[in-house]
What does this fold into?
Amino acid sequence: MAIAIFTDDPGWHGRQLQLAFAHLGHDSQTVSLTSCRLQIGMNPSIAIPGFTGLPEAVFVRGVPGGSLEEVVFYLDILHGLHALGVPVYNDGRAIERSVDKAMTSLLLQQAGLPTPKTWVLRDHDQAVAIAEQELAEGQFIITKPVFGSQGEGIRRIEKSTDLLWLTGSRGIYYLQRFVHCHGDGFSDHRVFVINGQAVAAMRRRGKFWLNNVARGARCEAINLSGELAELAIRATHALAMDYAGVDIIEDREGPLMVIEVNGIPAWKGLQSVCRVPVAERLAADLVNRKIKGL
Ligand SMILES: Nc1ncnc2c1ncn2[C@@H]1O[C@H](COP(=O)(O)OP(=O)(O)O)[C@@H](O)[C@H]1O
Ligand SMILES: [Mg+2]
It folds into this structure.
């Protein structure tokens, strides 16, 4: 039996995980969710190429985008594996919550965590009215695709003429008050949490207000403060994740704000500035808690 690593882009992360699992005596194989199938009435009822039966466990490194049916199908595979007793890391429910920025924001707020004011809605006129009101109060507004990642499709509305291109993403408007960050330039924090522990963190310094590494932000080592660690841990707990990459921005007015909780966070940039072997920590957590039940 081997561990399946679901990804469409094995690359560096896939290799890191495979090495880490091998180090712990577990074979693993990367495979795309697009090539799996449900086969009801047969054994096993979920077929994964390269696996004769069910995998020992699953590490979810990537869930492809696609039509609603495609995405639901990929989640069906994750939920189905869980129902068949296969440990899924992060599990399908956690992945669902975290790819959905609307639900993430709602759960963060419900857990009493500081997160920017956010509106999610379908109606264009309401969206324009909200943005106009925010601009009138001297605020900027950010619009994001509900299922986006790596800074894709995020826009900032700074003045009333920007409202001309206020469009929803696949019919839904996700509007969030812009947080002006503390300090020079643009930066936020990425904190990596595994099993309720903040194991590593960095500052991401953006070329402009988008601080994603995929958008060219520079990674800088930081000392993880107690406040940052506690907030990241509470955010991960609010989304019920085994591990997460938590984006936290420091408002120039003072408070730390949780922007996002990633259930499929990359760690290549983080690994370049921290000593903690992230892949080894992830592999050990999955094997110890989910396979060995320690
Ligand atoms: N409300 C906000 N105020 C200021 N900057 C923001 C805000 N929301 C997002 N950003 C910036 O955009 C980046 C990407 O936003 P995020 O919500 O994390 O989406 P993604 O899933 O694309 O990473 C953040 O890391 C941050 O730099
Ligand atoms: Mg992010």
Observations:
- The chain has three domains: 3-92, 118-177, 181-283.
- The chain is about 30% helix and 25% strand.
- The helical segments are 11-23, 68-83, 92-99, 101-110, 124-136, 226-238, 268-271, 278-291.
